[in-house]
Amino acid sequence: MKNLKLFITRSQDVLLALLAALLILVVVNLIFFSSSFYSKVFLPDSAAGQVTLMVNAEKTRVNPDPNSDTAIILGDSRLAEGFSAKQASLVTRPFGLEIVNAAIPSTTPRCWYYFLSKIDPKKDKFNYIVMGLPSLTKLTSEDLQDRILDLDYIAPIVSKSDIIDVANTFRTIDSKVSAFRMLLMPGFVYKYDVQDLFIHPKDRLNKIIHPYVSIGWSHNYDYSGRPETLEGVKWDEDRKNVVYPETYPVEKRDFIQTYVKNLEQVPNGTNLDYYVYWLSRISERYRQTNTKIIVFQLPSGPLPTTPKDASAFPEILELKNKFKNIVILPASQFANLESPELFFDYLHLNSTGRSKLTSQLTEIILSEHKNSETN
Amino acid sequence: MLFNTFPYWAFFIVTTLLFYAVPFRVGKWVLFISSCLFYMLWNPYFILLLGAIIILDFYAGILIDSSEGKKRFYWLLISLIANLGILAFFKYYNFFVANIESVLDIEKGRYALDIILPLGISFHTFQSMSYTIDVYRRTGTATRSFLDFSLFVTFFPQLVAGPIVRAKTFFPELENWTVPSRDFIVKGISLVFVGLIKKSVFADHFALISDAYFNHLPSHPGSASAIAGVTAFAMQIFFDFSGYTDIARGCAYILGWDFPLNFARPYLSQNITEFWRRWHISLSSWLRDYLYISLGGNRHGVVKTYRNLFITMLLGGFWHGASWNFVIWGAFHGIMLSLHRVLVSGLELVGLGKISQSRIFLPAKVVFTFAVVCIGWVFFRATTFHDSVFVISNLFEFGTTNALPLWHVGATIMLLISIVGAVLEEKYSVVERFNAAPTWVKVLGYTAALLVLQLFAYSKKDIPFIYFQF
After folding, report:
1. What distance in Å separates the CA atoms of residue B247 and residue B189, rounded to the nearest whole number?
2. Nearest to B450 among A10, A25, A195 (CB)
3. Which of A34, A186, B55, B187 has the fewest Cβ atoms surrounding its Cβ within 10 A?
4. Is residue B397 part of a domain?
5. What residues are paired with A343 via a beta bridge?
6. Would residue B1 count as lying in a domain?
7. What is the distance between the alpha carbons of residues A207 and A201, in angstroms, rounded to a whole number?
8. Of B177, B198, B217, the domain-final residue
9. Are A25 and B447 within 8 A, CB to CB?
10. Same domain as B223, residue B139
């Protein structure tokens, strides 16, 4: 211990300087990144920018009829592209129901939970929470439990008291520590946003002034979807591959083939636990309220399609027994939309598909609404 | 375990605390065991190979030291053959086989083996060889402590990518080790910060440009892309390797060792000879002391001096990797060094020697030297000779349009910071001044460094240190 004491004595002021620097770093993060100061200059089309825009939009949104009920749609880019709140509300408004599309690309149920905590702290804002999951019957290879990318969407909205809770929802110790560090010092999360601000300050200013131009998708209420289609592209079940029309552009084929290759990857079994955990948490959050949770499988794309007899995992169906406020739609509910002419790429519905999904989903929400009114 | 990751720093802090918590004779074991663990985390089996090299050279050293006459030479020869044999097998076997197969028109890959290159093999075999050669030349004595010798070879800050520390530097430090002074610790911490910023902020961002260029050459025709790609690689390799060395030296300082300087702002060199005095100093001085001088150095006339220079650089290039491109890179520098000597002699002869030293020419000379070095880097970075020719021909194909813009404002800012930083450090020794500054200045400096690392380090994926592959 003699050497250690001598080492500490000799380096005391330097070690203290290091410690002070670390403390200042935390304080700078708290003042600069954890306050609303930096959120005003987020790149609108970044993860943090999109969440912040959505939160601000929801804070300032007023239903045309203040007495009407509200259904909020949560999902990733497939719902952002595939559902029109404007078209839906035109149908539901006469029945006293307003529909809001809050789907944000790349988000997952973990992000949605903290998003709801932020925009609906009293749990009284929504009558229906409608969540579109990529699949209720198949698992992907992505490790959703340890998806650090979720922090990009959670960091701008999570309260300091929830940091440990968020970190704990990650699976490995490495990810838990990373999540804690990144949420305590969100500079780690916003670093690419800061770099972009340094490099393109003028562009940033333009994008902040015109955020919806910068994003250019369904955050815009009047957005009507993309016109392109996959018409002619088919899935060959025997060869487990895609068949293209002769004139189909090579670069688009490469894009689709990447997706097909991903289908071969080994599914991650823990994703089912992940879905069950987060659907339970969201249902639990609203258990004592009148809010109904509606879960459905998104039209998963035409390459390949969902089998007609596909059934959701029993663990997910079991949630219906556990929570009285959750409705789980049949896995093949929207399989009729999994057709190449309704998609502009292998995942996303085009404008026609968007209109069809909106119409079918709205009908279901409206039917739930009418039922609950009758009861 | 990469130097720029959290696990490494957790490992380093635990090792440092354990090392100081026990008496030094036990502390040496702590360092040795930690070094073995550090190595085994990459591949546990290759520790046996490292152990074999240690045993071989330790006993070779003693046998050379205690023998006389020709016996000394034979023991050295056995040590050199064994070291170079191991290096040749792991690093060059497949290269030689592929070339023989090609010459004899044998089916490609028929005699190839699935060999994993042991981490840092080129560095620790050179370090170990320098020990036995020094003992043979009687410029150093053989250590009788197996632990000391093992630590000399395995010491984790320099095990993987140098700097190549000489026995005559390491053992006296080990012998006279004391708890480092405050100055040592301050210097160590500053070097660690500088190294981390060099690697994570500069090298990794420049790597994105150079990888985008060199990995997709046909997509980037024209001189602008070629200049961007090659310049980015020149910056990447400097920041990557010198950043690694800074961290290694910084860690060594904190543990009480003074490792030699490996980079001294090489891109400010006014000629290629000066460049090699400033670039990878521990390797170039190794090559000078153990190869160039062994070949006769400059003692046998002008022609043989040029020949020796050429052979030294050629083998130096080959040391980097088993590829003709590295050989060409080495040969290119051998030729450039010889040409520089010819030019200097020529200018002296016609009486222009003094004028050529004028400060007016300084910027032009620095830019020209950098350009020459960059041409060399093309062979170093490109995967094949064909790719190298493509890049070099594109470098001079002015006026063509580019398919994709590679260079961006961020890269220009980094380049400007690099130039200003290098000039300031060269003229005013900024880091040294910072080390001597009051504590509050250090708090500000450390905070700034932490903020820069937090906000500007590239972290989307781990980009390994370039020299780890050697």
Report:
1. 9
2. A25
3. B55
4. yes
5. A349
6. no
7. 10
8. B177
9. yes
10. no
Q: Tell me if A21 and B457 make a contact (CB, 8 A cut-off).
A: no
Shared domain for B237 and B123, answered yes or no, is no
Residue with tokens 């041409």: B375
Write the pLDDT tens digit of every residue in A273-304.
999 999 999 999 999 999 999 999 999 777 77
B264 and B135 assigned to the same domain? no
Show which of B148, B177, B206 is a domain's final residue.
B177
Q: How far is CA B297 from CA B31, B84, B226, B312, B429, in A?
A: 38, 22, 37, 10, 34
Residues B198 and B245 in one domain: yes
**pLDDT mean over B426-442:** 93
Strand pairing category for A234-236 and A241-243: antiparallel
Same domain, B135 and B221: no
Decide: helix, strand or coil at residue A230.
coil
Whether B440 maps to a domain, the answer reads: yes
Residue B329 has phi, psi (to 5 degrees) of -60, -45
- Let me know whether B204 and B320 are in one domain: yes
Whether the pLDDT of residue A214 is over 70: the answer is: no
The answer on B161 and B206 residing in a single domain is: no
Report how many domains make up chain B. Answer: 2
Give A238-270 pLDDT, tens digit per residue.
877 888 888 888 877 877 887 777 777 777 888
Residue A246: how many CB atoms within 10 A of its CB?
Answer: 5
Q: Which of A:17-46 have CB within 8 Å of B?
A: 17-18, 20-22, 24-25, 28-29
List helix spans (H) across chain A: 2-28, 36-39, 47-60, 77-82, 85-92, 109-119, 150-154, 163-168, 173-184, 187-199, 201-209, 211-215, 250-263, 270-285, 314-317, 319-322, 351-374
Chain B CB within 8 Å of residue A173 CB: no
Helix (H) or strand (E) holding A327: strand A326-328
By a Cβ cutoff of 8 Å, what residues of chain B touch chain A? 6, 17, 19-24, 27, 179-182, 185-186, 189, 408-410, 413, 439, 442-443, 446-447, 449-451, 454-457, 459
* A132: three-class secondary structure by DSSP: strand
Strand partners, A132: A296
Q: What is the span of the domain harbouring residue B360?
A: 183-469
| Cα separation, B210 vs B216, whole angstroms | 10
The H or E element that residue A293 is part of is strand A292-297
Residues B189 and B169 in one domain: no
Residue A307 pLDDT > 80: no
Q: Do B182 and A185 touch (CB under 8 A)?
A: no
